[in-house]
Amino acid sequence: MVKIPQLKNKWVKDINTILKFSLASVDPYYCVLKTIHLNDDNLTIAKTKINLEKIKNIYIIGIGKAAIPMAKAVEEKIGVKITGGFLISKNQSEGFEELIEKGFQIEFGSHPIPDKRSIDCAIKLEKFVGNIESDDLIITVISGGGSALMVLPYEGISLTDIRELTKILLRSGATIQEINTIRKHIDRIKGGGLAKMVFPAKMMTLILSDVVSDEISMIASGPTTYDETSFFDALTIIRKYDIEEKIPENILIHLNKGFHGEIIETIKQEEKYVQNISNTIIGSISSVVKAAEEIARNLGYTTLVNSKKIIGEASVVGRVESAKFIKMVENDQYVKPACLIAGGETTVTVSGNGKGGRNQELALGAIEQFENYDNCCLISLATDGEDGPTDAAGAFITGASLKIARENGLESKQYLKNNDSYSFFEKTNSLIKIGPTGTNVNDLLLMFAFE
Fold it and tell me: Which tens digits make up the pLDDT trace of 23-52?
């Protein structure tokens, strides 16, 4: 998976073993498969049980990058009892043709910036659920990316408005929770909107979390659950990042109308629309960190789980966390080989015009701390294999990285200032390119000190 010529082959082999088993722990197909049990007409999904004798039709809805493998697992468990299905994803994946043959409708949206396909997906889904009746059951599988892949803006808000808003928010440094708070208040299918559309039918939802806090209402902007945020919160976030003058006028008008009570709020906990719905998280960054710790320990590494909720400005996190790690190495706090493991999702405030992603930016922020520590290495990658708008999952650095950069005339601080981490690591052959993994549960950070 990852090639690091500056390190011994055995160390690189260990790194790849850890990555392989860590990502396998959140394989969407198996995460769903082990969560569903059918005994005659008694269906158990996570801790929720239902007798299918009273159910007229069973429909599968899938939203997100892992929609296809997650739906495939549901179909294999329940089989002929399924009436039909509707899936929204980013790319074709294993099981696509099989599900098409079995009558599933599969549509593809755009991510991270929505386009017309994303709106078409939402419109088609709304039409699909329009045929659902009160004695039907919907099994919904949700994974990361759903917010962009499925867009149904309120009247008066255009696709151009949504696209411009998304670009502004992604460059502002706002967290995914903040971004999705705004999204929920300009979109009819988010913030419990899908739950309202299928009411009063029963819905059982399985979720692969790509949000650090595992807040169900924030994953894919919470289409199947209630929302605790408000129009006031959305406006507060816009003012917090001083982007009010950049936001499309139609969106500001809509949010202000909502704030003054002229537009109905998102679905709240006490409303009837969410009473027949169960939501269960079946995989998250915690699963990845736990798996990484276990396999590293089995390989003979002293392990330390630093955090499962790393957040903040990517370059700052890289600098601070790597400084802590190097200090531990200097003080011989842990027997080598040692592996520090962390997970989470940082943000990037874009001020330059370069190319990169939060994991590449984190690694570039850490590069000076690792200088001359030849037996040390940092790996930072997005678990979905796509770091920002790039074809890289992330990047690696070693004690030799800064020296290699200087020999090639590269100044790390300048590239960091221009948010051009991709170009930097491309020129130093330090990008991690593993392709789409089929899963999506935030980012994994590994720091090694070898013997």
Answer: 999 999 999 999 999 998 999 998 899 999
Tell whether 100 and 164 lie within a shared domain: no
Domain range for 167 is: 157-185+230-265
Name the helix (H) or strand (E) containing 207: strand 202-208
Can you give the CATH number for the domain in which 402 is found? 3.40.1480.10
Backbone angles phi, psi at 433, to 5 degrees: -120, 105
Cα separation, 437 vs 65, whole angstroms = 10
3-class state of residue 110 by DSSP: coil
Reported confidence tier of residue 306, pLDDT bands at 50, 70, 90: confident
Q: State both tokens at 8.
A: 């011994």
d(CA 114, CA 163): 6
The residues that bridge with 50 in the sheet, in sequence order, are: 43
- Both 146 and 48 in one domain: the answer is yes
- Report the 10 Å Cβ neighbour count for 257: 14
CATH number for the domain spanning 107: value is 3.40.50.10180
Q: Which two tokens stand for residue 158?
A: 């255009």
